[in-house]
Design a protein that fits this description.
With 449 residues, the chain is of the alpha/beta class. The chain has three domains: 2-95, 3-Layer(aba) Sandwich (Rossmann fold); 100-302, UDP-N-acetylmuramoyl-L-alanine:D-glutamate ligase (3-Layer(aba) Sandwich); 311-447, Protein-Tyrosine Phosphatase, Chain A (Alpha-Beta Complex), CATH 3.90.190. It has helices at 10-21, 37-48, 59-67, 83-91, 98-105, 119-132, 147-150, 164-168, 188-191, 194-202, 221-229, 273-287, 293-302, 330-337, 376-383, 395-405, 427-439; strands at 2-6, 25-30, 52-55, 71-74, 94-95, 110-114, 137-141, 157-161, 177-180, 213-217, 233-237, 248-250, 253-255, 261-264, 311-316, 319-323, 343-348, 366-372, 389-392, 411-414, 442-443, 446-447. The strands form five sheets. It has a six-stranded parallel β-sheet with strand order 7-8-6-9-10-11, with helices on both faces. It has a six-stranded mixed β-sheet with strand order 15-16-20-17-18-19, with helices on both faces. Helix 3 packs parallel to helix 4, helix 6 crosses helix 12 and helix 16 (395-405) crosses helix 17 (427-439). The protein starts with a strand and ends with a strand. The mean pLDDT is 96.
Length: 449
Amino acid sequence: MRAVVIGLAETGIAVSRRLRAEGWDLVVLEDTPGDGSAYAARASEVRDMGASLVERPDAAAMQAAVADADLVVPSPLVRVDHPALVAARAAGVRLRSEIDLAGERTGLPVIAVTGTNGKTTVTTLTAAMLVASGRAAVAAGNVGRPLLDAVDDVADVLVAEVSSFQLACSETFHPRVAVVLAITPDHLDWHGSYEQYVADKARITAHQTAGDVLVYDADDADASAIAARSSARAIGFSRRADATGSARVLDGHLVASDGTVLAAVGEMRRAFVHDRTNALAAATAALAVGATPSGVRDALANYATLPHRVALVGEAGGVRWYDDSKATNPDATLRALESFDSVVLLAGGRNKGLDLGVLARAADRMRGVVAFGEAGPEVEAALRDRVTVVTARSMHDAVRAAADLAQPGDAVLLSPACASFDAYANYGERGDDFAAEVRSLDVDGAPCR
């Protein structure tokens, strides 16, 4: 048996290890070899395991590799029109994504979570609810550990975050429970259109049957349409108190779709609007595979906010400072803004081809905006007719401009609506820089704490 793996990042090395351990002959194609130590270590490991590594393959090398293959496995971010995938389809060679391989190799029920925003939180919160209910649950997938690496773990349930990139090339993935959060424009430069982006998300339920469960955002049109077409039993969650039959918040309590009271909102460790929505999604998924209401309640009382997701990083002079650097699209920023009445927003970075003008929907919540980064002029153009906008050339300047705009009772929110790659390696580095600048402020004669 001969397999071709495309891409040698974290997923590619996980697939390579697994297939070699199973006895497959292996060819790894890497279009853009890295120049750092991490890539060098992966390349050395692939060669040491007896696989063939072809760097910067031309069309002939790709054709030759695929011609003799029984299986081709692309890493996430390998486009569906990659020449090796085109050649594989033309030759009738079997294609699988890494999540397909994982699903084919585990006997455990899998909960898979997708959507545009909130995936990591819902994935880890679902696992926490199961653990608090006495079920051994492992969170994997796009949260940082390839799902394929988790299939041999001692567990009762696997909870996987799956991205649109992973789903785009999936052929057999069959989760016991699929979760579809709200879908809004993102990664359109990769998928080519919003319609294709939604279609790729919908692949999460393509192989589900009547014995499976699809949990979906009943307030989102695209998620609801996916649920309507699914063969699985669909259970919605909603922000609307009158959404009978869906999980919802009613009279200050989180309520399951069957009316079971799960927890008081006041018992949650943090209960912003998006926190409540994420909690409903996670609880519905966890209950479907054996979580208990008491386990759900315990997890909500103890679940810690993940870094860079509306995380409080400082407070001084009656102003609170929040790091939401993970918000790399406008919808994520709008959801964060919902939790505050008066905000100084820091927005900008590298736009991913998305409409930043939608941020104006929340203009009545903004005291002011600090626009920064490559997309700073776009942010300014989108909001200057609705709210005071100042521009900044660096995070240092942006934080100080925000301090000048903010008044007691305000929140200052870094929620950029854009990617970080114009100035930072990732959103975490951007959030850390923001937090460091906040802590260096001298407000009313005292440092921000």
